[in-house]
């Protein structure tokens, strides 16, 4: 076989390889678009936002969590969760009133949202709890996000009439482990949040 024919054959093989890679990428893109369309349809059928903060409701977040689990299994890139609890929120409501409590939640929501990326998701998980899903983020990178939140919000306060309300938070982090259920990854975040709350209570008692 002549040199020219060998080079031509190599070129054809390269073109075939690139075409296969392009076809694979197009197929992945099609799957992603279909999943996004399905997710949007599910969210339409649910009450998917919290009226006070504008964040996702727990029910809507569960749908997003399932979607991200499927994506993580396909791409082999994990996501991480941050479960955040406002400290002494009941006492804030009792001392300053529920309007003050609402202002604390809105202040917190606005501040945290400014730190997150567009591809991340956040929901109001309970009265004084929020849950954040960090897309394609491992545990160590989630700790970096936690540090950013701590840095930008170390002196949190809300001004309400003559009152200046200082507040703080505790946080639990978990990383999705392939093939586990979404319940498991949420439960680990809860366990880590409980541990952080325990440390907070110990600091208060000193």
From TrEMBL:
UniProt keyword Coiled coil present: yes
Coiled coil segments of this chain: 1-42
A molecular function (GO) term: diguanylate cyclase activity
One Pfam family of this chain: GGDEF
Signal peptide: none
Entries under SMART domains matching the protein: GGDEF (SM00267)
Claim: Coiled coil is one of the keywords in the record: yes
Residue span(s) of domain GGDEF: 77-206
SUPFAM superfamilies linked: Nucleotide cyclase (SSF55073)
Keywords: Coiled coil
InterPro entries from the UniProt entry: Diguanylate_Cyclase (IPR050469), GGDEF_dom (IPR000160), Nucleotide_cyclase (IPR029787), Rev_trsase/Diguanyl_cyclase (IPR043128)
Protein name: Diguanylate cyclase (GGDEF) domain-containing protein
